[in-house]
Each structure stands twice: as structure tokens, then as C-alpha cells.
Amino acid sequence: MTYLITGGAGYIGAHVVRAMTQAGERAVVLDDLSTGERDRVPAEVPFVHGSTLDRPLLDRLIREHGVTGVVHLAAKKQVGESVEQPLHYYRENVEGLRVLLEAVVDGGVRQFVFSSSAAVYGMPDVELVTEETPCLPMSPYGETKLAGEWLVRAVGRAHGVATSCLRYFNVAGTAEPELADTGVFNLVPMVFEKLTERRAPLIFGDDYATPDGTCVRDYIHVEDLADAHLAAARRLTEASETGENPDLTLNIGRGEGVSVREMVELIGEITGHHALAPTVTARRPGDPARVVASADLVSKELGWQARHDVRAMITSAWAGWCRRHPEAVAERG
Ligand code: UFG
Questions:
Q1: Which of these is catalytic: 11, 89, 141, 168?
Q2: Is pLDDT at 241 greater than 90 in this prediction?
Q3: Measured from the CA of 201, which atom of ligand 1 is nearest?
Q4: Which whole-number Å values give the CA distances from 172 to 71, 206, 317, in the listed order?
Q5: pLDDT tens, 86-97?
Q6: ipTM greater than 0.85
Q7: What is the rounded average pLDDT of the residues 209-232?
Q8: Domains in the chain, please, with CATH?
Q9: Which atom of ligand 1 is nearest to the CA of 194?
Q10: Pocket test for ligand 1, best of 116, 149, 287 (most atoms within 8 A of CB)
Q11: How far apart are CA 153 and CA 234, in angstroms?
């Protein structure tokens, strides 16, 4: 097996490359480096600089590297930006996927793992989100992921490609400081940034209908998430060998809700910056009160289970942050 991993120079993609190659799988990475970083990909893994919109490049790559499966992570992923630039998001996330799937079908590739998101559910009004919970995305980003899933499943059925759509919940942590997320768009790095500047972290609203009034999320360690990709890819390969043609749509979360206040307090404790108490500000528009996965189906289908807790996510993410921001440690207080 040789897997094409698109977006393999990104934060999550690089962890998928790491998990798959450490498990003995062959990989080739395609990344346009718009947000990815070349040095996240190990030197021994072939790297191709380019876009999934480039059909001739894809055809060449699949042929020359003997690609048998694809793990597709390359995408734009900022909710707010997607509201401002829907055309760009549909082009990159939906058209980029459509062109890739054409190349997959014409190139005889038989396995396809698609990076989806809990954003497809929008504002779920349930204790635990199952894969049957209605999908009502609230942003163009979420829409592109849902439309992507539809396309992946339809192509899988029509052309005999085994497919899996993995719906990520809130991803955090790092396997190695060098692979850490560099964006400051999510709760954990946003709190790190405030603490580094010796300013109070912000909590966006504490009047939600949740136990402590702050939003509840299901955080998943990126290393566990990467292992889920490996398990999905292997499951699809086995299925193809036995003539099955599965389309597995799976939540990737831990099934455990953690509130924003709990996260901020734990970050303060782990980083030693607990003296900086958080400030509560207005709600951020579009935030659902609670999004927590039911992780039953993925454990049944893939035998996968998360191994890392929130403490491990924050500790590893902080090590990655301090590598890029040495002043974060020096200014602790
Ligand atoms: N938050 C704060 N203060 C901050 C930053 C965030 O209170 O400084 C809160 C947010 O309001 C939210 C929670 O922390 O309640 C988590 O926010 P994130 O931005 O980390 O994550 P989201 O749950 O909003 O978004 C995540 C993914 C998106 C995905 C979305 C829906 O990052 O890609 O889940 O599944 F679209």
C-alpha cells in the first residue's frame, strides 16, 4: 500500500504522516504549503508541492508513486474566514476534492479517507452527538465538509471506492513540539497567547445552559486522531480485499465534555500561569453551547479508542508553544 496524504505538511496531516509511516505504511505527501510547513514532513517521505486542483499533477503523482489509497486532509479550515470568503472555501474544499476524486477514480485508487468535521452538525441540541444526529452546518466551512462527505460517498458507491469520512471534534495537543499547531485560532493556543503576553485569558460567555455556564466541547489529542486515520485506512484496505465496499462515517472524539472554564483553569495550572484569572466577555456569535461526540461507532467499526486525556493535550501543546515562544516560560508568574 502507498498512501497519498494531502495536507500532510499541516498540523493534523503531519501527525497522520507520522502515525502511518511509524506503523510501516508507505506515504507520499501533497501540500500547497499555504498553511503547511515543509519541515513538518520527514526527509524520507516523498513530498510534492502542489494543489489538489491540479489534475495533471495528481495523475502523475498517483502513477509515479503507485498510490493505492488516499487520506485527504488538504483544506481551508477557519470558520470565520469561510463566512467572508465562501467562494474560496467552496473552490478549495469542494472543487479541490472533486478534482482529486476524478484522479482517484481514473487512477484506479480504491481507498479514500476524508477529513470531515463536527462542524457538519452545526448547533446540535443533544447530550451526545451520534452519526445519526441531523447535519445542519452553520458556516460555509461546515457546508463544504458536508458537501464533501456527500460527494465522497456518492463516488465511492458509483465507482467502487471504499470510503471513510472522519468527523473531528476539537483537536489539541502534539506528538512532538516540532509538529505543534502554529495557528492561534482555537481555545488552547488563544489562551497560551494571552498568558504569554501576561494578559487575562478570555472566556466568550458564561451564560450558556451548561453546568458552569461556559461552552462544553469534546477535545481529542491529535495523536489519537492520527491513529484513527491509520485504523480507518487499514480497515478500508481489508474491506477492499474481501470485496466489501464500505462507506464509514465516524465521529472522532472521546465522548467527554470539558467546559471552557475547566480548560482555562487546567491550562493555568499546567503552564504555571494560574495567577492570571480569566475575564468573561460577550458570547462569540455562532458558538453552540455543547458539542460532545458519541464515540461508540468508531470503537465498534475500527476498534479505536482515544488514549490521551486533556491534561496530555495541554502539556504537549504547551511544549510546542514554548518552542516557538521562549518568552512564554521566562515571563511566567
Ligand atoms: N473560546 C473562549 N476563549 C478563547 C477562545 C475560544 O472562550 O479565547 C471558546 C469558544 O467560544 C468555544 C470554545 O472555546 O466555546 C472552543 O472554541 P474553539 O475555537 O477552540 O473551537 P470551536 O468549538 O469553536 O471550533 C471547533 C473547530 C472548528 C469546527 C468547530 C465545529 O476548531 O474547526 O469546532 O465542530 F468547525
A1: 141
A2: no
A3: 8
A4: 20, 22, 7
A5: 999 999 999 999
A6: yes
A7: 98
A8: 2-169+221-252 (3.40.50.720), 187-217+254-291+307-329 (3.90.25.10)
A9: 8
A10: 287
A11: 18
